[in-house]
Amino acid sequence: MKYEQLAKDILDKVGGTENINSVFHCITRLRFKLKDESIAKTEELEKMDGVISVLRSGGQYQVVIGNHVPDVYKAVLEVGGISAEGAENSGNDSGGNLFNRFIDMISGVFTPVLGVLAATGMIKGFASMFLAFGWVTQTSGTYQILYAIGDALFYFFPIFLGYTAIKKFGGNIFVGMAIGGALVYPALAGLTAGKPMYTLFAGTMFESPIHITFLGIPVILMSYASSVIPIILATFFAAKVEKGLKNIIPDVVKTFLVPFFTLLIVVPVTFIVIGPIAVWAGDLLGHGTLWVYNLSPVIAGLLLGGFWQVFVIFGLHWGLIPVAINNLTTLHADPILAMTFGASFAQIGAVLAVMLKTKNQKLKTLGYPAFISGIFGVTEPAIYGITLPLKKPFIMSCIGGAVGGGIIGYAGAQGYIMGGLGIFGLPNFIKPGSPIDSAFWWVIIAIVVSFVLGLILTYVFGFKDPVEASAATAPVITEGETLIEHEVLVSPLQGELIPLVNVKDEAFSSGALGKGLGIVPTEGKLFAPASGTVTMVFPTGHALGITTDSGAEILMHVGMDTVQLEGKYFKVHVKQGDKITQGQLLTEFDVEGIRSEGYDITTPIIVTNTNQYLDVMVVDEAEVKPGDRVITLVI
């Protein structure tokens, strides 16, 4: 219990064990979720020996300790009498303001299913395209099977969202799926045939014929196939009901009585109250967005097409995705995402201009994979690796995307499915069962114009071309100046080098953990910056420490707060105690996967024993690749 007193003091300053909902740790900090942060003595904590800093982020009260945080964490559990299981029961409250929590909820519900939704949408789109070209007939087995593959997920969407939504809300995933299944149960649709018993809200927009009742209460039967809002609200309600039932039902019968009563309560309430209100709200939302769009489709296209990439950078696009899916459900077409279609083509036009004009070989090499991925609608490598760091190309791509969006708005083109991206997104604009119309060809024109504008504007207005790194630009250190080069560390990543002060985490940017730099990686491979020994591998794979043969202690931390991914997207190739050589592959990680979860991928490279050196000198480079000289340690 080396850290027993420190643990006692920390627990006292955060308000005691009774003020802690949960606590876990990452590579450098204790992460508390407190019942009341206002009673925590933050200033006193920050002045304590053994505490580097205190941060509030993502609904967490973070006490920055340093590399020995695992030992302090164990001491906190021991001193506080907290079980490891209870300590890490962090729940699903993401913290932050209402808008941030809404975005977090939407991304958590839709992210797991978007890949397969795009895949099935592509199949449905290609089936429609084959039909439009006359390659298949609507009654052929080929078309019927392809359409079934493409349409099944969207038709039974409430079941899939029942899984993802209730998981996000902290409930039983199978209860969520059962609720979704009840909403699309085929036999209920047949009950609407025949003369209704009576009509509710006659003469209003909410007029509803009543065909059945539940315990004498009228049930408004609606079609919930492909719906979005009803199942999200129902699973939110179910998670709350389930939590309440767990508190009152004895443990010995919880396994079956909790889901039994949850379903008995939630499903009827959904059919009687939640479902109809949600459907009406969805209809209003759909018609509301259509009304705004119809005010001026061209202006709407200019704004959405121009700012779409900005929305993606800040994660704001998640607010529009459920609107688009709701439009497909209620209106059977969506103009919102359709108007953003040219943005990715404007982006690759700008990338091509950079590749043609730059004299920086590293930038030119980086452009090839960025351009190819952009063709298929994946523009993050282009944005973060090329256009955004160069600034002007990003602005020019936004202009190109705006003009493309304006053309699509002018043509009145709409998407009819949630299909693929980039060139695979073209079938989205073909209405199933209908021939190709003129709006489709306007979409082709729009993406060509977006691409050409991104290319020409970037080439004409130019950009500041990064200077190639060379031995001549490397710092020269001589004994005559009493500065002796002790060791050189090379870049462990490919990406954009940024000053440590620009890293969006105070524990790193303040230099409290040591001097170093940050790299925004464009490739998910972490290599050894020097030869030495692996001294620490965090269980989740997001952080790794080495001690070089010359004694430098290096911490490499992939992304901000990525400990919360619990190892997802990471694959570690070494273990603690391994001898490594410079350039050896240490860890692989999925850059886009981590970003898709909403995490900043910036990776700090820190010399944690900085105080043993006279200086830690960092090169001034925009782009680096593995093997480039980035840090010089001076004694």
UniProtKB/TrEMBL annotation:
<dbReference type="InterPro" id="IPR013013">
    <property type="entry name" value="PTS_EIIC_1"/>
</dbReference>
<dbReference type="Pfam" id="PF02378">
    <property type="entry name" value="PTS_EIIC"/>
</dbReference>
<dbReference type="Pfam" id="PF00367">
    <property type="entry name" value="PTS_EIIB"/>
</dbReference>
<keyword id="KW-1003">Cell membrane</keyword>
<feature type="transmembrane region" description="Helical">
    <location>
        <begin position="336"/>
        <end position="356"/>
    </location>
</feature>
<feature type="domain" description="PTS EIIB type-1">
    <location>
        <begin position="4"/>
        <end position="86"/>
    </location>
</feature>
<feature type="transmembrane region" description="Helical">
    <location>
        <begin position="299"/>
        <end position="324"/>
    </location>
</feature>
<dbReference type="GO" id="GO:0009401">
    <property type="term" value="P:phosphoenolpyruvate-dependent sugar phosphotransferase system"/>
</dbReference>
<dbReference type="InterPro" id="IPR003352">
    <property type="entry name" value="PTS_EIIC"/>
</dbReference>
<dbReference type="InterPro" id="IPR001996">
    <property type="entry name" value="PTS_IIB_1"/>
</dbReference>
<keyword id="KW-0472">Membrane</keyword>
<dbReference type="InterPro" id="IPR036878">
    <property type="entry name" value="Glu_permease_IIB"/>
</dbReference>
<feature type="domain" description="PTS EIIC type-1">
    <location>
        <begin position="104"/>
        <end position="473"/>
    </location>
</feature>
<feature type="transmembrane region" description="Helical">
    <location>
        <begin position="256"/>
        <end position="279"/>
    </location>
</feature>
<feature type="active site" description="Phosphocysteine intermediate; for EIIB activity">
    <location>
        <position position="26"/>
    </location>
</feature>
<dbReference type="GO" id="GO:0015771">
    <property type="term" value="P:trehalose transport"/>
</dbReference>
<keyword id="KW-1133">Transmembrane helix</keyword>
<dbReference type="GO" id="GO:0008982">
    <property type="term" value="F:protein-N(PI)-phosphohistidine-sugar phosphotransferase activity"/>
</dbReference>
<dbReference type="InterPro" id="IPR011297">
    <property type="entry name" value="PTS_IIABC_b_glu"/>
</dbReference>
<keyword id="KW-0418">Kinase</keyword>
<feature type="transmembrane region" description="Helical">
    <location>
        <begin position="173"/>
        <end position="192"/>
    </location>
</feature>
<feature type="transmembrane region" description="Helical">
    <location>
        <begin position="439"/>
        <end position="461"/>
    </location>
</feature>
<dbReference type="InterPro" id="IPR001127">
    <property type="entry name" value="PTS_EIIA_1_perm"/>
</dbReference>
<keyword id="KW-0813">Transport</keyword>
<dbReference type="InterPro" id="IPR018113">
    <property type="entry name" value="PTrfase_EIIB_Cys"/>
</dbReference>
<protein>
    <submittedName>
        <fullName>PTS system beta-glucoside-specific transporter subunits IIABC</fullName>
    </submittedName>
</protein>
<feature type="transmembrane region" description="Helical">
    <location>
        <begin position="109"/>
        <end position="133"/>
    </location>
</feature>
<keyword id="KW-0762">Sugar transport</keyword>
<feature type="transmembrane region" description="Helical">
    <location>
        <begin position="394"/>
        <end position="419"/>
    </location>
</feature>
<keyword id="KW-0808">Transferase</keyword>
<dbReference type="InterPro" id="IPR050558">
    <property type="entry name" value="PTS_Sugar-Specific_Components"/>
</dbReference>
<dbReference type="Pfam" id="PF00358">
    <property type="entry name" value="PTS_EIIA_1"/>
</dbReference>
<feature type="transmembrane region" description="Helical">
    <location>
        <begin position="368"/>
        <end position="387"/>
    </location>
</feature>
<feature type="domain" description="PTS EIIA type-1">
    <location>
        <begin position="505"/>
        <end position="609"/>
    </location>
</feature>
<dbReference type="GO" id="GO:0016301">
    <property type="term" value="F:kinase activity"/>
</dbReference>
<feature type="transmembrane region" description="Helical">
    <location>
        <begin position="145"/>
        <end position="166"/>
    </location>
</feature>
<feature type="transmembrane region" description="Helical">
    <location>
        <begin position="212"/>
        <end position="236"/>
    </location>
</feature>
<keyword id="KW-0598">Phosphotransferase system</keyword>
<keyword id="KW-0812">Transmembrane</keyword>
<dbReference type="GO" id="GO:0090589">
    <property type="term" value="F:protein-phosphocysteine-trehalose phosphotransferase system transporter activity"/>
</dbReference>
<dbReference type="GO" id="GO:0005886">
    <property type="term" value="C:plasma membrane"/>
</dbReference>
<dbReference type="InterPro" id="IPR011055">
    <property type="entry name" value="Dup_hybrid_motif"/>
</dbReference>
